[in-house]
Amino acid sequence: MSLIKQLWLTIAVLLLLAFVGSLLIGVTSSRHYIEQEVQIKNSDNANALALSMSQIEKDPVILELLLAAQFDTGHYQRIALYDPQGEIIDERTAGEHIDDVPGWFVNLVRFEVPPGRAVVQDGWQQYGTLELASQHSFAYRSLWRSTLELAGWFAIAGAISLVLAAWIVRTIRRPLRDVVSQAQAIGQRRFMVANEPRTRELREVVQAMNQLSQAVRQMLGEESDKLDQLRRRMQHDPVTDTLTRAPFLNQLQAHLKSEKDDASGALIMVRVARLAELNQQLGHADTDALLAQLARRLEQLARSHGHGTVGRLNGSDFGMILPRHHDLQELGKTLQQPLESLSAEQSIDTSLVSALRQYSQGESQAELLASLDGALAAAETRGLNGQEIVDQPAGSVLYTRHDEWRQALAEALAQGVFLAHYPVLDAHGRLIHFEVPSRLRLKGEWRPAGVFLPWVSRLAMAPTLDLAVVSAALADVESSGKAVAVNLSAESLGDGHFVGELLARIQAHQGIADKLWFELPQSVALQQPQALRTLCHALLGLGCKVGLEHVGTQFGKIEGLQDLGLSFMKIEAALSQEVESRSDQQSLLRGMATLAHSLGILTFAEGVENQDAAKVLFELGLDGVTGPGIRHREGDT
């Protein structure tokens, strides 16, 4: 039995005992008082009547008339006159009229009042004995009315007491609920702080829970900071604090293999021309300062265009990846301004040349870098701060105008979405769920998501596509019974209509909600933490699982990570590349897995290319793997 039920039961028992006790004492006291009053009345009336009879002539007719007159004028149950031998001389009796009082009450409080007795004298001799008993009906009525009044007043007092008790119980229950919710949240690796109640004992409990929550939150924050420091030490250039060559190229390779909207975009390279000469003229410290300023300006540009990636490829070359950006002419103008400004600030002539090129899914990384390297060389021949834009081959473009893309996408969505299936397996080869990236039929072929998602985003059609994918995923789960992971875009998360429709469709298929895993980009957690938290709690309440995909080195920077309620995260493919031979990446992945597990979050690795890499990842503590080297056997579930 719960504490609240015990408290209510105690209050009810106390009120019942108080009512029964008060009623019993009140009725008993009133009954005893009435009996005394009736007994005194019987005695006084008997003495008065006996005195009157003693003073008149003892004529039987006169005595009978006097007895009858007394009986008729009073409320008597019985008046009898006995001779000295005990024989009745005269007697008057009447029944009790108590129809307006319940019989059970009369039987319960039956009065036991002895009749009044007095001696009738005839001179100096005893003429007889008079016995008189009053009616009790009025006493029953009086006692019944007082009992009803007592019960009524007690009912009012009881109602007031119950209202007061309900307020007290609610006052006690609220902090208890907060403590229970807080304990459950800590069990789910969410560390909330509850409001402190006024009640001292409850306040002490809540304070202790808040201290525990804060201590665990602080511990996890410290672990996150240590992980971030480890990441920077292993992956960042000490001079410019940007990614070094290997992590940057891993990021680029992950984009080229992606099935998402980051599978195409712009790749930019910037070179500090004649760096060796600058180093001799400016000195080592000033040259390092120049490189650091260049890196900061490139990072500012990357942030202004979304979450781009900046890296230092070698001593003089910097690279920048801007997913989902395709207007190279505009990007070139935006890039040229900070480069020219930085060049003009130097005390000697400094040339910062740049080259831009689009990248798309399936392209060769080596060819991309080679073409940009050649473009940089051409930019240097243009003079100070030269820039070269590499044209994309016309054959790789499906449509050239916005209206063509809009019409083609609308027709493809009307035809229906096809879902590819890529397994996510655990350490024993068992299926956790299928990733189901979408395919649309464009120009007679099923095109991967990396081809059309940039245009879907550009044309604000992401909510429409995501709802179509959700419907297809629901049908897939109903037919196969296998769990699937559905990608949701950041644009859809900010659409209130989409969120409402998504929840409605899941509620309509509540029986399979536990087989639905929803993935959102890591950038959503960085840019829209409140919207993500709201969606997480709504989907988790329906039995679904929610997680982040493409989680990278900024994982520890996510604000309120422990309060989001995430079920899983998928670590980006760049961190799983060549993990077998990279001890630095292994340390980083182990730290990310440990931090995620401390928050109750499952960790999966994306882009795993072979079983050896998968084995190492499982040894590092990851819970699942997916990628081109992962295959699922039908017999495994």
Structure write-up:
There is one protein chain. The chain contains 19 helices and 20 strands. The chain has 637 residues and is of the alpha/beta class. Strands 11-12-15-16-17-18-19-20 form an eight-stranded mixed beta sheet. Strands 6-7-5-8-9 form a five-stranded mixed beta sheet, with helices on both faces. The chain starts with a helix and ends in a 12-residue tail after the last strand.
- The N- and C-terminal alpha carbons lie at a distance of 41 Å
Can you give the mean pLDDT?
A: 83
Strand order of the largest sheet: 11-12-15-16-17-18-19-20
Topology, number of strands: 20
Protein name: EAL domain-containing protein
InterPro entries: Cyclic-di-GMP_PDE-like (IPR050706), EAL_dom (IPR001633), EAL_sf (IPR035919), GGDEF_dom (IPR000160), HAMP_dom (IPR003660), LapD_MoxY_N (IPR032244), LapD_MoxY_peri_C (IPR042461), Nucleotide_cyclase (IPR029787)
Organism: Billgrantia ethanolica
Domain GGDEF: 263-392
Brief summary:
With 637 residues, this protein is of the alpha/beta class. It is 53% helix and 17% strand. Residues 263-392 form the GGDEF domain.
List the helices and strands and how they pair.
Layout: H1 3-54, H2 60-73, E1 76-82, E2 88-93, H3 103-108, E3 116-122, E4 125-134, H4 137-187, H5 200-235, H6 245-256, E5 265-272, H7 275-282, H8 284-304, E6 309-312, E7 317-323, H9 328-345, E8 352-359, H10 365-381, E9 387-390, H11 402-415, E10 418-419, E11 422-425, E12 431-435, E13 438-442, E14 445-448, H12 449-458, H13 462-480, E15 484-487, H14 490-493, H15 496-507, E16 516-521, H16 522-527, H17 529-541, E17 545-551, E18 568-571, H18 583-598, E19 602-605, H19 611-619, E20 624-625
Parallel strand pairs: 8-9, 12-15, 15-16, 16-17, 17-18, 18-19, 19-20
Antiparallel strand pairs: 1-2, 1-4, 3-4, 5-7, 5-8, 6-7, 10-13, 11-12, 13-14
Helix pairs in contact: 1-4, 4-5, 5-18, 7-8, 8-9, 13-15
